[in-house]
């Protein structure tokens, strides 16, 4: 039955020819209703308050906000705000609705708490790293003070292990003759690594 109605409607529209005195027919302007009106299955008016914020090519945006807040509440929110703040309010509502659908108990407050926890952990890591850097700087300063004190002493009063280090620094290619750890008697207990 529907196909016969469609064929008669098309034949009737074809049989009507424009008169030569009238202007050529304008092509019909097809305005797509906004996503909100599509979801709500209602006619989209020219002054639809939802049309600028819920374009027809993104129905999921309105669907998620509608599930959480409801269409009437969204319209009330937008009517109470000045136009300059409505776009931000819609994006906030859509974000909150997505967060509420992901986490029905906490919503975006759960995401905020998670991010604050990460910030606190990272701040603790930064504080620990800064404390380690201060500690290393102090150790380096103490080491430099010890080295400068040892250097200021005369070489005769310096301990023998520092004298051997001084000797090594001045002539690194001459090895001392009393290297007892390289005796063959000490090398006997070492086992070969490969067999």
UniProtKB/TrEMBL annotation:
UniProt feature coiled coil, ranges: 112-139
InterPro entries: LOB (IPR004883)
Family recorded in the similarity comment: Belongs to the LOB domain-containing protein family.
Segments forming domain LOB: 32-133
Keywords: Coiled coil
Domain of life from the UniProt record: Eukaryota
Name listed for the protein in its UniProt record: LOB domain-containing protein
């Amino acid at each position: 039955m529907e196909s016969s109605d469609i064929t008669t409607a098309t034949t009737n529209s074809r049989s009507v020819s424009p008169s030569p005195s009238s202007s050529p027919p304008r092509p019909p302007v097809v305005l797509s209703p906004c996503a909100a009106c599509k979801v709500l299955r209602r006619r989209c008016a020219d002054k639809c308050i939802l049309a600028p914020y819920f374009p027809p090519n993104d129905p999921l945006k309105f669907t998620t906000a509608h599930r959480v807040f409801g269409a009437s509440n969204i319209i009330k929110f937008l009517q109470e705000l000045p136009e300059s703040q409505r776009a931000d309010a819609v994006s906030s509502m859509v974000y909150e609705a997505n967060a509420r659908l992901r986490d029905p108990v906490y919503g975006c407050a759960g995401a905020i708490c998670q991010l604050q926890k990460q910030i606190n952990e990272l701040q603790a890591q930064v504080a620990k790293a800064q404390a380690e850097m201060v500690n290393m700087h102090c150790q380096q300063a103490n080491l430099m003070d010890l080295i400068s004190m040892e250097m200021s002493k005369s070489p005769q009063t310096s301990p023998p292990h520092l004298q051997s280090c001084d000797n090594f620094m001045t002539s690194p290619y001459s090895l001392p003759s009393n290297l007892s750890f390289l005796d063959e008697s000490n090398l006997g207990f070492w086992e070969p690594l490969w067999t």
